[in-house]
Specification:
207 residues; Rossmann fold; seven-stranded mixed sheet; 7 strands; globular
């Protein structure tokens, strides 16, 4: 990894998404959070960026960084945006938090020429292990919440995401398994991502 990329200090899935986005692209980030990814894309790749965020805190952080951001509930869809109006539409670790995941995936495929979606993989072996041995809802580095305070309302695995896209007529162009750090199982993630990858990133489009 180059010194420039290390200096970005983005979390692993956002770093991979940053690498995917082509210079000069028009980018819409759904659930933009603090705006760190959009700021990096604007500064280092000359992207034209826009964010959608529901939290007041996230909106204020985006504004402080000079990122244009709009407050909206993703479950209401993206009616304000025309078809194929962005080169990329990003949804990073947010799909499991919305009430209408099917609707938002369809809207991503409509509004963006390419959608880039990252998800926490609830099929990961660590989660399966905790459920099997402890019989309690698991907590991991990627899913650190207690069951009674988690924002995650739709739990899905990498295999679930593939099946949903197929059912919606959405094409998966590329797929990447992602982990926070290198480990003994890292080299095997590409072979068994649903079991070994804590996170999955997908490039999608309409068929």
């Amino acid at each position: 990894m180059s010194p420039e990329m290390r200096a970005l200090r983005l979390r692993p899935d956002l770093m991979r998404i940053y690498e995917i986005i082509q210079p000069g692209s028009r980018v819409l980030d759904l659930g933009a959070g603090s705006g760190d990814l959009l700021k990096a894309l604007e500064k280092h790749k000359g992207a034209t960026v826009r964010g959608v965020e529901i939290s007041e805190e996230g909106i204020m952080e985006c504004i402080a960084k000079g990122i244009p951001v709009y407050q909206s509930n993703l479950d209401e869809g993206l009616a304000d945006y025309g078809a194929q109006s962005f080169d990329y539409v990003i949804l990073a670790q947010t799909l499991q938090q919305v009430h209408k995941p099917k609707l938002i995936l369809q809207e991503i495929a409509r509004v963006g020429k390419i959608g880039v979606v990252s998800i926490p993989n609830f099929g990961h072996w660590h989660i399966r292990f905790q459920l099997l041995l402890r019989g309690t809802m698991p907590k991991t580095t990627y899913i650190p919440y207690n069951w009674y305070e988690t924002p995650n309302i739709h739990l899905l695995s990498i295999s679930d995401f593939r099946e949903l896209c197929a059912g919606l007529g959405i094409r998966i162009l590329n797929e990447w398994p992602v982990s926070l750090k290198e480990g003994p199982l890292t080299s095997l993630m590409a072979r068994w991502p649903n079991l070994l990858a804590p996170l999955g990133i997908f490039e999608i489009s309409r068929k």
